[in-house]
Amino acid sequence: MARKETAADAANAGRLKQIALTYKMTRKADKKIGLVLAAVGIGTFGVFLAIGFLIDHPWYLGIFGLLVALLGTAIVFGRRAERAAFGQMEGQPGAAAAVLDNIGRGWTTTPAVAMNRSQDIVHRAVGKAGIVLIAEGNPNRVKSLLAAEKKKMNRIVADVPVHDLIVGTGEGQVELKKLRTTMLKLPRVLTGPQVTATNDRLRAMGDLMSNMPLPKGPMPKGMKLPKGGPRGR
C-alpha cells in the first residue's frame, strides 16, 4: 500500500514539474500567458458565482464554476503552449511534420512525399477535406514540387480535391502555428469510406520517401541528402 502511495506521489510530482517547465517555456514566447490564464480562471469562476447568488445557490454554482474555470484554464494553457512551441520551430526544415503529427483524428498524414537537395519538403494529409499538400522551404522552389505532386494526384485520384499550402510568414503563406487551424477549416467534401478509398489508392501508388528513414519533427540543421538520393518530382 505504501509503495502504491509513493509511486502515485512521485507521478504527481512529475506532472507538476512538467507543467511548471511547460509554463516557463511558454512564457518565453508568450509574455501574456499568466494574465490570460488568470483572466480565464477568475472570469469564469466569477460568472458562475454571480449566477449562483442570483438564483440563491452560491455554493453549488461556486463549486461547479471552479471546476469549469480549471478546465477552461487548462484548455487555454494547452493551446497557447502548443502555439508557442510551434512558433519556436518556425523556419526549421521538417517542422510542419510535427504539426501534422498532432492534427487529430480523421486525418492520415504522410511526411516528406517529395523533397529536393535544398531540403524543400512536401508533406501530404488526407481527410474529409480531400488531399492537402503542405510545403515548407523556399516559396519559389516549393511551387514546382507542389505542381508535380498535384499533377500526380490528378492522375491517381482525379475525383478528389487537392489543396496546397505553403508554410511560412510571407504573403499567401500559412504560419506554422496556424497550420492545424487552417486545415481544420477546409470544407469537408468526402465521406469516411471515400477517405479510406483515397488512402488505399495512395498507398498502392507508393511515396518518394517510403524506403528512406526520416526522423519525425524538425530535421537537423546542415543535414544533406546523399548523392543519388531522391529529387523533387
UniProtKB/TrEMBL annotation:
Signal peptide: none annotated. The chain crosses the membrane at residues 33-53, 59-78. It comes from the Bacteria. Keywords: Membrane, Transmembrane, Transmembrane helix. Residues 219-233 have a biased composition (Low complexity). The keyword Transferase does not apply. This is DUF4191 domain-containing protein. It comes from Streptomyces actinomycinicus.
